[in-house]
UniProtKB/TrEMBL annotation:
Organism of origin: Larkinella arboricola
Pfam families, alphabetized: ABC_tran
Entry-linked SMART domains: AAA (SM00382)
Presence of keyword Transport: yes
Keywords: Amino-acid transport, ATP-binding, Nucleotide-binding, Transport
Family note: Belongs to the ABC transporter superfamily.
Key word Transport present: yes
Example of a GO MF term: ATP hydrolysis activity
Top-level taxon of the source organism: Bacteria
InterPro entries: AAA+_ATPase (IPR003593), ABC_transporter-like_ATP-bd (IPR003439), BCAA_Transport_ATP-bd_LivF (IPR052156), P-loop_NTPase (IPR027417)
Family matches, as SUPFAM superfamilies: P-loop containing nucleoside triphosphate hydrolases (SSF52540)
Lineage start: Bacteria, Pseudomonadati, Bacteroidota, Cytophagia, Cytophagales
Descriptive protein name: ABC-type branched-subunit amino acid transport system ATPase component
Length: 222
């Protein structure tokens, strides 16, 4: 896809494993300029949903559309969408700088905001600590030239200062991207997001009207 998109919709997503229904007719939409939160209990299917949107999951049915145009395998269109999975994905033999090159991002872009990561630019990814690696991967995805970004638990492994910085970067990048953010640090998700989906056990998305109260009612928080 060459034209940039402003609306990404995923609907009719059905996924089951061995007869166990994980996602049932799920609908989500993302818009450039907005941050959309995704919350739900452990094991309810949030990561499966993100992988389904990317076209990485063997769903029974699904429709992903960019500005109304059907997208078969979103992962094949990095200019449309980038995805931060829960687990490390950058080959450990690459240097930080090479990883940025792989994602088409000029590493000098992060020199001022993230001097520590910049300082590691000649280091191999496999030599970084868990938090340093996570931060590198988050920046690769967030700084990419893409319309939409899916973030699966971006705050895991990060220390509080890094979380604050990443929150700021997510905010900045959301002015020109549509971002889906899923993380159990729900306060950050609530603070950042323009709208919140809750994925129920049983695999349906609910758009929350009064997020804090709704999350209590659904037993996600006290
Ligand atoms: N390839 C697979 N085969 C069988 N079951 C799977 C597979 N992948 C995921 N599951 C199951 O699907 C369910 C949803 O998993 P998923 O990782 O999407 O949950 P989640 O909402 O992201 O959970 P958490 O908040 O704990 O990260 C889980 O019960 C998981 O065990």
């Amino acid at each position: 896809m060459n034209q940039s998109a402003t609306l990404l919709e995923a609907d009719g997503i059905w996924l089951q494993f061995g007869g166990r229904k994980i996602l049932q007719s799920v609908y989500v939409n993302l818009q450039v300029g907005r941050i959309t939160g995704l919350l739900g209990r452990n094991g309810c299917g949030k990561s499966c949903l993100l992988r389904s949107i990317m076209g990485l999951m063997p769903t029974e049915t699904q429709s992903v559309r960019a500005n109304g145009r059907y997208v078969a395998k979103a992962y094949q269109q990095p200019g449309l969408i980038r995805y931060l999975p829960q687990h490390p994905f950058v080959p450990s033999t690459l240097t930080v700088q090479a990883a940025f090159g792989w994602y088409g991002v000029d590493i000098n872009e992060i020199a001022d905001e993230y001097p520590t990561t910049y300082g590691f630019r000649h280091q191999k990814i496999g030599r970084l600590s868990g938090g340093e690696k996570r931060l590198t991967e988050i920046l690769l995805v967030l700084k990419s030239a893409t319309d939409f970004v899916l973030l699966d638990e971006p705050f895991s492994h990060l220390m509080p200062l890094q979380i604050e910085q990443v929150l700021q970067t997510i905010r900045q990048e959301s002015t020109r991207k549509g971002i889906l953010l899923s993380d159990h640090l729900y306060r950050h998700v609530l603070d950042l997001s323009d709208s919140i989906y809750y994925l129920t056990v049983g695999g349906r998305t609910i758009l929350l009207n009064a997020p804090e109260q709704d999350l209590k009612d659904m037993g996600y928080i006290f």
